[in-house]
Design a protein that fits this description.
heterodimer; A: about 230 residues; alpha/beta; Rossmann fold; about 40% helix; B: about 120 residues; alpha+beta; hypothetical protein PF0899 fold; three-stranded mixed sheet
Chain lengths: ~230, ~120
């Protein structure tokens, strides 16, 4: 008769990705490169916001971006208009970026010279949440046209992000969004989460977001030096 | 759907453990899946079968233990269940959670071997 026995393992399913992300994080830290990723559903305005951030930060800082999509190089072409170096990652059928895709995309790139590296994930509110990319800050975007209950429907992405950015503020009135309810829902699934409200089109709220990003990340840099 | 990526990672992880621990055939793989992990149980079960094809784990079974959300309550100061998913509010007093203690699990816990 055959005999069964249980062997305990205790191993994270995404151990490989976590290890690779840690290696990336170490590399970014020793290079002094700050890394910010953006996640949201398709059409929330990641690329438009990023185009503005790159353009605004470029005079004082060396910025660059990686942008993930299933197909096309359209977003890279749009972001390149900012003048910053941009690289497209096309994932084929994969619905999210993982640490190995980031590592491969950085191959031959002078990351060490970059102050702020932005990574725009594939537009998807579910899959990117599980994969650490080695970033310092993860921004989750939700646009005023998406409805107040997005955070309740997709809690994990809000839970794994550090900062929420409400985009398309210029459309808020037309979309008749209840802003207080949206904020309440974000804080319901992620208590205390910093929230910014911006319009990349009009520029409203961008300065505050940029100030926050540079201040927070510089603070991290100082802490690391000490 | 990223459950196939997750299932492939489970298969890779188990195969690596088998190799490390010089073990034989696996009948059952046990995983813990938090409700906040963002991974769907049914999609993962389906993907697991696909991911096992052509590997030493073919015909093995995946047993998924779901883990409820627990928070460190900012008012009570202890671990608490939450009032209603997905809100991170204390089931006892309604205060916000300071951090998530359980519910984000995505881990392989055990393998059942046959001799």
């Amino acid at each position: 008769m055959s005999e069964t026995r249980i062997v305990e393992v205790r191993r994270k399913v995404l151990k490989e990705n976590d290890l690779l992300a840690r290696r990336l994080r170490d590399r970014f830290q020793s290079a002094g490169t700050r890394v910010i990723s953006l996640v949201s559903s398709p059409g929330s305005g990641k690329t438009t916001l990023l185009e503005r951030l790159l353009t605004d930060l470029r005079p004082q800082h060396c910025v660059a971006a990686l942008v993930g999509d299933l197909a096309t190089e359209n977003d890279a072409a749009r972001l390149a208009r900012s003048g910053a170096p941009v690289k497209q990652i096309t994932t084929g059928t994969v619905c999210h970026l993982d640490a190995s895709m980031v590592e491969r995309a950085l191959d031959g790139w002078p990351v060490e010279e970059v102050d702020y590296l932005f990574i725009e994930n594939v537009g998807n509110l579910v899959c990117p949440s599980s994969f650490d990319l080695g970033e310092d800050l993860r921004l989750v975007l939700v646009s005023t046209t998406e409805g107040e209950d997005k955070p309740l429907k997709y809690p994990t992405i809000f839970n794994t992000a550090d900062v929420a950015v409400i985009t398309k503020l210029d459309m808020a009135q037309a979309a008749d969004i209840n802003m207080d309810l949206l904020i309440q829902n974000i804080h319901g699934v992620r208590p205390g989460m910093p929230i910014f409200r911006v319009s990349a089109r009009s520029g409203q709220g961008l300065h505050e977001l940029e100030q926050f990003l540079t201040a927070t990340l510089n603070k991290a840099k100082v802490a690391q030096v000490q | 759907m990223h459950e196939l990526s997750i299932a492939l990672s489970i298969v890779d992880g188990v195969l690596e453990e088998l190799d490390l621990q010089k073990l034989g055939k696996v009948e059952v793989v046990y995983v813990r899946l938090g409700r906040l992990s963002g991974v769907d149980k049914d999609a993962l079960s389906f993907s697991y079968e696909v991911a096992c094809e052509g590997t030493a784990l073919v015909n093995s079974r995946l047993v998924i233990e779901e883990v409820e959300v627990a928070i460190l309550c900012s008012a009570c100061g202890v671990e608490r269940r939450t009032r209603s998913f997905p809100l991170l509010a204390c089931a006892e007093c309604g205060a916000a959670g300071e951090r998530v203690l359980h519910g984000e699990e995505l881990e392989i816990t055990a393998m059942e071997m046959v001799h």
